[in-house]
Amino acid sequence: MKRDVVTGGGCLVSAAGVVGAVWLWGASDRTQRHLGNKFENNGQDFGAFLTELPFVFLAGAVVPAVAWGLGVWLLGRRRGRSESSRASEFHA
Asked: Which pTM was predicted?
C-alpha cells in the first residue's frame, strides 16, 4: 500500500508540474509575443510553439518527478539506516 501511495504522489506532483510549466510558459511575455499578441498579429510565429511546448511539457513532467523520487529515496535511506541501527542494538 505504501508503494502505491508514493507512486500516486509522484504522478500527482508530475501532473501539477506539467500544468504549472505550461501555464507559466503561456503567460510569459516572450510567448505572447510569438503567438501574435501584437498589432494585427504581426510577428506571429508558430515555430516557437511547436519547438518550445514539447520541451516545456517534458521539463514540467520530469523535473518534479525526479525531485519527488530523490526525496523518497533519501528518506528511505535515512529510515533504513535508523532501523538498522536500532536492530543492531537489540541484537548485540
From this structure: 0.70
Per the listing, cell 508530475 goes with 14
Q: Does residue 7 lie in a domain region?
A: no
Q: Is 84 helix (H, G, I), strand (E, B) or coil?
A: helix
What confidence tens digit (pLDDT) does each residue in 26-35 have?
888 888 877 7
Question: Structural domain of residue 28, as residue ranges?
Answer: 17-91
Give the per-residue SS3 of 25-71.
Answer: HHHCHHHHHHCCCCHHHCCCCHHHHHHHHHHHHHHHHHHHHHHHHHH
Per the structure, the count of domains in the chain is 1
For residue 65, pLDDT over 60 is answered with yes
Question: Does 12 fall in a domain?
Answer: no
Calculate the CA 32 to chain-centre distance. 23
Query: What was the pLDDT predicted at 70?
Result: 92
